[in-house]
Design a protein that fits this description.
The structure is a single chain. The chain is built from eleven helices and ten strands. By secondary structure, the protein is mainly alpha-helical. It has two domains: about 190 residues, Cytochrome c-like domain (Cytochrome Bc1 Complex, Chain D, domain 2); about 90 residues, Cytochrome c-like domain (Cytochrome Bc1 Complex, Chain D, domain 2). The strands form four sheets. The protein has a three-stranded antiparallel β-sheet with strand order 1-6-7. The chain has a three-stranded mixed β-sheet with strand order 9-8-10. Strands 2-3 form a two-stranded antiparallel sheet. About 10% of the residues have low confidence. Bound molecules: heme C (2 copies). One heme C binds next to α4, α6 and α7. The site of one heme C has 15 residues, from α4, α6 and α7.
């Protein structure tokens, strides 16, 4: 869809203010009022791996304001670190009929979980489908601990997901999409480019075509997932990636896919692959 067509659609629906401002990525910041020095900030990317849809990969971090970036960078001011702390004690909390904690089997998370957060969603041989990190944690709870699964978006599950992924902070995202994953990859890809909702827009319309440009006060990123679960200043808590996808779908007035539905997981697999090579930032901070 052309920029003109998007503007037309948006204004027809009364979203005049949502029209895209065609400014270069480096021209300004997003959420907070850009400080005078911010105009000079140039988003730093990394060369995309072969086969990527992008030439350069940019973490969403690069498109946030200096204040937001600083908050993520400093563990003492990053609000997501409180959840990492909370999960640190949950890690050795015995729960369920098997009388076990995560620590009973996985001992020191800095060693046993190092790198784990780079490769989710991951193929599960037993279930013969990809599972997300949230689902893997719940599989351990139900199968290995004989404990109740945690609800999606509950504090416990999001904290633990954040904690596990945090053990891979700085390591490159490396989601595998070959072998049996390729069917899910293809499905996710077609969903990514499929226009949905009253605004008739695809993920790619915003995050591939227009990243680096403004939509309302927001500066569009590549829609990468290397920061999830990510702390959203708007909602004042950590947000799991599928919740974020739902938010974007609602924004274009589409009915969001259900959490852990095949469509959602396929989309998560494909979107994660688009960020292969970016460093895991969990817990990220975004507006
Ligand atoms: C009784 C032992 C046991 C307990 C308790 C247990 N797990 Fe596991 N966990 C496993 C085994 C075995 C695997 C690998 C095979 C599988 O998927 O079951 C695994 C795999 C994992 C993985 C995937 C690792 C990878 O390389 O992809 C994660 C993440 C994980 N566990 C997290 C947890 C968390 C968090 C808890 C506590 C809520 C927990 N586990 C409790 C035995 C356990
Ligand atoms: C109308 C434009 C629009 C569409 C279409 C859209 N998004 Fe977004 N999305 C946004 C905006 C605005 C943000 C917040 C700023 C940013 O990071 O781009 C965002 C943020 C995100 C983020 C968070 C990035 C980060 O760094 O934390 C992800 C992931 C994402 N979108 C995925 C998707 C997916 C998947 C789809 C398709 C189902 C989609 N988006 C469709 C506008 C859109």
């Amino acid at each position: 869809m052309s920029a003109g067509r998007i503007k037309q659609v948006l204004s027809a629906l009364g979203f005049a203010a949502m029209a895209f401002a065609m400014v270069p990525a480096a021209a300004s910041a997003d959420d907070a009022k850009p400080a005078a020095t911010e105009a000079a900030y140039v988003p730093k990317g990394i060369p995309a791996p072969a086969g990527s849809v992008f030439k350069t990969l940019f973490s969403g971090y690069q498109f946030r304001s200096a204040d937001t970036r600083a908050m993520q960078d400093d563990d003492f001011s990053n609000p997501g670190m409180l959840s990492v702390e909370a999960a640190t004690s949950e890690w050795s909390h015995v729960d369920g009929e098997a009388g076990k904690s995560c620590a009973s089997c996985h001992a020191d998370p800095a060693k046993t979980m190092h790198g784990v957060g780079t490769h989710y969603p991951r193929w599960n041989k037993v279930l013969e489908r990809p599972v997300t990190l949230e689902q893997q944690i719940n599989l351990c709870r139900t199968n290995n601990m004989k404990a109740k699964p945690w609800a999606f978006n509950s504090e416990n599950l999001t904290n633990m997901t954040t904690f596990v992924r945090y053990q891979s902070r700085g390591l490159p995202v490396a989601v595998k999409v070959d072998g049996p994953m390729s069917v899910w990859f293809d499905k996710g890809k077609s969903l990514y480019y499929q226009r949905i909702g009253q605004l008739d827009m695809a993920c790619s319309n915003c995050h591939e075509k227009y990243y680096g440009k403004h939509i309302r006060a927001d500066l569009l990123s590549q829609g990468q997932t290397n920061d999830f679960p990510t702390y959203r200043l708007k909602s004042q808590h950590l947000v799991p990636v599928e919740k974020r996808f739902q938010g974007c779908m609602a924004k274009v007035r589409a009915k969001p896919y259900k959490i852990f539905s095949d469509n959602m997981i396929a989309l998560e697999v494909y979107t994660a692959w688009r960020g292969n090579g970016l460093p895991v930032e969990t817990p990220g901070v975004r507006n």
